[in-house]
Design brief:
5 strands; Tetrahydropterin Synthase, Chain A; homohexamer
Chain lengths: 135, 135, 135, 135, 135, 135
Amino acid sequence: MIYLTRRERFNAAHRLFQPALSEEENQRLFGVCANPNYHGHNYQLLVTVRGIPDARTGLVMNLKELSQLIRSEIIDHLDHKNLNLEVPFLQGMVPSCENVAKAIFHRLRPHLKGCELHCVKLIETENNYVEYFGD
Amino acid sequence: MIYLTRRERFNAAHRLFQPALSEEENQRLFGVCANPNYHGHNYQLLVTVRGIPDARTGLVMNLKELSQLIRSEIIDHLDHKNLNLEVPFLQGMVPSCENVAKAIFHRLRPHLKGCELHCVKLIETENNYVEYFGD
Amino acid sequence: MIYLTRRERFNAAHRLFQPALSEEENQRLFGVCANPNYHGHNYQLLVTVRGIPDARTGLVMNLKELSQLIRSEIIDHLDHKNLNLEVPFLQGMVPSCENVAKAIFHRLRPHLKGCELHCVKLIETENNYVEYFGD
Amino acid sequence: MIYLTRRERFNAAHRLFQPALSEEENQRLFGVCANPNYHGHNYQLLVTVRGIPDARTGLVMNLKELSQLIRSEIIDHLDHKNLNLEVPFLQGMVPSCENVAKAIFHRLRPHLKGCELHCVKLIETENNYVEYFGD
Amino acid sequence: MIYLTRRERFNAAHRLFQPALSEEENQRLFGVCANPNYHGHNYQLLVTVRGIPDARTGLVMNLKELSQLIRSEIIDHLDHKNLNLEVPFLQGMVPSCENVAKAIFHRLRPHLKGCELHCVKLIETENNYVEYFGD
Amino acid sequence: MIYLTRRERFNAAHRLFQPALSEEENQRLFGVCANPNYHGHNYQLLVTVRGIPDARTGLVMNLKELSQLIRSEIIDHLDHKNLNLEVPFLQGMVPSCENVAKAIFHRLRPHLKGCELHCVKLIETENNYVEYFGD
């Protein structure tokens, strides 16, 4: 079993905001991260798959295909977007690093053939990141 | 003469948008960077000052004071903010990396005593940055 | 279950030195790292907690609180300090990367409420780091 | 139990090429990575061992010895070499990141005394890496 | 005047080899870098242009255009290639970091309109890089 | 003219301390950096030389020779040392980043043959560095 990781990046705006609560309650919970006019990040997304390398090619998965899959399913929907307003698969949730990583995991998993999705790591800043390994 | 550099960081939302032009013209000029709902970045700001180290302290400038100056004059106004909407000293301009760096330079320069502002370097992504040395 | 990591930093002096042994034996065991006048590092500390994101906030833990906890319990006691001489919770041990990481883990764990301490990663140089996950 | 990681680096040429297949089939499988004249990488190798720190020294393993072991067994054989042509322990396989990491793991493991080899992580580019933990 | 930098990357094989000299003389001059079977690097290329930001767009140059220019003129010719054998504009010279940077500079310069090529920085490893500013 | 840079590293202890002043005055001037028991850093030293690449080798300077020069003249004297106590060429000065960079420059310059020392850049932390270009 080998673990193979591909990094992709996207730049997006967001705010931590729970629509079920008042603006004041959001400010209290999330502080400056709840700023109504948004802020943003250069997100780094690390997708780890695991599998047995193919005996002939020596590859767990073709990296170009893995990159294209991440781009078509995830990056094209998040890059230069507002995570609160413009991403259908993130609607109805606070776009916290935790929730975004989880949504990316569940969106990517069904597309992987011949290897298994092991981890989605989402780096929000040089000091903060989350990892999700599925339930 | 020694050049001393301090790095600070801020996370902000912006869009490349020239209000004097139509939405369509902005899209044509700036592509996805003109997205009306904004995107964002983890900006890194590197401020370089130059001067003769003090004979007694060996310092061009106290780094804690330089850091506090950059924070109070710049970071506190940009971090977790929307560069198009919320920053008085960026109003009336496209918040391109070029324009933001230039505005930061001119805002910081009058506050430096005993040494000279040499360069403002603003890193927008791991692939893009600008440097401004004054006119 | 989501794993959330916060990075903090501290700059400290130390030497690898076992007081129960002679100076010569320490030199033999630890080489230049036993230099009696100390050397030092820019340490990077990565603290990983795990938990179920709160349904309302989408957060495993408020990052500002996690940062403040790490600072008040760990960084304030280690930053700009001598790890052999000035840190009560490191006394009586060689301040190796292994021992310091372990001590940080056990000092932090009781303070976490609502999520669990998963890992302390301590990066001593760009080439060396340790990870401790509890016993 | 503590996990201790040492990073070493090597610069090497390779091509993804399966000798049992035709040149055309290799091009189809591996694209530009099959270029007959080779390309190359600055590889980063992270070796993680795990063990109980020695009660006297506080060390899982002496880092200088770990570094020297990795250099004598691995780096000296790979650095400034062609992975397809010049490395006896890589012959008969496609020098994919997966296969190289696995070969390094099995070559290093018998040499570790007093601690166990946990993981070999091989970083090929800033966007791609693999990890192998043994079978 | 603003300085704008774009980073692109390419992975290539090379050897330091002067065809006018014997194999032995090359080994003596270049050591392991002259290995006949090549080695390779993940090169990072930083291209800096300078100009006055356009009053309307706030840009020295459109970054997408700068990126595409660097890719079509440079990266497409160097990535996954052998710098000694396959790059017409590098023939007849030792593909040292110095010579490659200089060749890239002179190849790019005529293509820049409305701003000036200031510097080509070529990073060969995390420890070595060169900069060329034109003659 | 090409600018060639080599990075080397050293880990050292220091304190900002001016012996001509009282302990109290040092604390007032330098704050926690004056801690009597020292703190330390992983210093990165970037040495830039400039020259015309040799027509035959394509090199400004042999990088192995540049590395060995920096190690024998600088790193061997600073690595795992106390900058206040153990480095003859740093005695009689506050070991600030400014003063150390300047001392390194003047110590290295006479040893360079066939090219000129352009800059010494000394990185003390990920947020602070100085550059010295000679007087």
